Amino acid sequence: MDASMEKPLSLKKLADQVIVITGASSGIGLATARMAAARGARLVLAARNEHALKILANEVNYPPLINLTV
């Protein structure tokens, strides 16, 4: 396909996306979860630390339907 005929890349707004975040209870995963929640994304949060994950869910006012602790 000729590159001049390709459509430009277009991204959905975060508020229109579901984002899966692993390691959501600390570090980069925690920061990403906070940022995405602040911008209205629906989140699937996974972490090994169940207690910290519950604190995050309450902090971002996002009660998950399913808690996934690995």
UniProtKB/TrEMBL annotation:
Transmembrane segments: none annotated. GO terms for molecular function: oxidoreductase activity. Keywords: Oxidoreductase. InterPro entries: NAD(P)-bd_dom_sf, SDR_fam. It comes from the Bacteria. The keyword Oxidoreductase applies. GO terms for cellular component: membrane. Belongs to the short-chain dehydrogenases/reductases (SDR) family. This is Uncharacterized protein. It comes from Heyndrickxia coagulans (Weizmannia coagulans). The lineage of its organism: Bacteria, Bacillati, Bacillota, Bacilli, Bacillales.
